[in-house]
Automatic annotation (TrEMBL):
Stored NCBIfam families: cobJ_cbiH
Protein name: Precorrin-3B C(17)-methyltransferase
GO MF entries: precorrin-3B C17-methyltransferase activity
Keyword Methyltransferase: yes
All residue ranges annotated as the Tetrapyrrole methylase domain in the record: 6-215
Enzyme Commission numbers on file: 2.1.1.131
Pathway: Cofactor biosynthesis; adenosylcobalamin biosynthesis
Keyword Repeat: no
Enzyme class, UniProt record, top EC level: transferase
Organism: Proteinivorax tanatarense
Record-linked PANTHER family: COBALT-FACTOR III C(17)-METHYLTRANSFERASE-RELATED
Keyword line: Cobalamin biosynthesis, Methyltransferase, S-adenosyl-L-methionine, Transferase
Length: 250
């Protein structure tokens, strides 16, 4: 009887191996095949030199998932990787949809392995900006209509949430962050504390603390996470850390 294959959807964290969970680390080490976007493959290359590696370029998410499922159905132990957490703008959902469509769940196993998402990693580098209620919104309109995204930004701002913006800007998407900024200014003070975190927990990490008014004066790209505070977010400990109070009396 042939062995039953398995595919793991693994969140590798923000990029530095020391911030990968032990479960993710061990899963990757125990896998026979690693499937993923080339940039993410490169982040963990020291772990996978003895593995079969199948890397893809941008916009190949379906192909990655189909390949991982096909290999698992052949009896392979496969890890399909995403940066951050695999279930937050990652590959987990698409993998499950592909497996379901192909009626593959009886011939293979699936397990989701969580990771440290960008907003959490950025928050740790900044202080404690998401101590209270917050929302994560991706500004990428590749798969979601911009009108829907803009409405979500507006509702989050009106609700005084801390807002974590993923995918704020790229070479092909310049205007979205500007429109979102205009929307935020309608419902939040221009002095609201904002953190701009780029390449978080990687060698060239860059953290900028600014205000909502001046947010667009700073460099923002596809490797940036932007955290916009709520009305109580402030700087603390000689202005070293961004803090959103939980409500404790001190």
């Amino acid at each position: 009887m042939s062995k039953k294959g398995k595919v793991y959807a693994v969140g590798i964290g923000p990029g530095n191996i020391e911030h990968m969970t032990i479960k993710a680390y061990n899963t990757i080490k125990d896998s026979e095949v690693i499937v993923g976007y080339k940039t993410y493959i490169d982040l963990i290359k020291s772990l996978i030199h003895d593995k079969e590696i199948i890397s893809y370029g941008m916009k190949s998410e379906k192909e990655r998932c189909k390949k991982a499922v096909d290999l698992a159905r052949q009896g392979k132990i496969v890890s399909i990787i995403s940066s951050g957490d695999v279930g937050i703008y990652g590959m987990a959902g698409l993998l499950l949809e592909v497996a379901d469509q192909n009626k593959s769940t009886k011939t293979m196993e699936i397990e989701i392995v969580p990771g440290v998402t960008a907003s959490v990693a950025a928050a740790a580098s900044i202080g404690a900006p998401i101590m209270h209620d917050y929302v994560s919104i991706s500004l990428s309109d590749l798969l979601t209509d911009w009108e829907v995204i803009e409405k979500r930004v507006e509702m989050a701002a009106r609700g005084d949430f801390v807002i974590c913006l993923y995918n704020p800007k790229s070479k092909g998407r310049q205007r979205q962050i500007e429109i979102a900024h205009d929307t935020l200014l309608k419902h939040k003070s221009e002095e609201t504390v904002v953190a701009i975190a780029t390449n978080v927990k990687r060698q060239n990490e860059k953290i900028t603390i600014t205000t909502l008014k001046d947010m667009l004066k700073h460099s923002i790209d596809m490797f940036t996470t932007v955290i916009i505070g709520n009305s109580k977010t402030h700087m603390s400990v000689d202005d070293q850390f961004m803090v959103t109070p939980r409500g404790y009396k001190i």
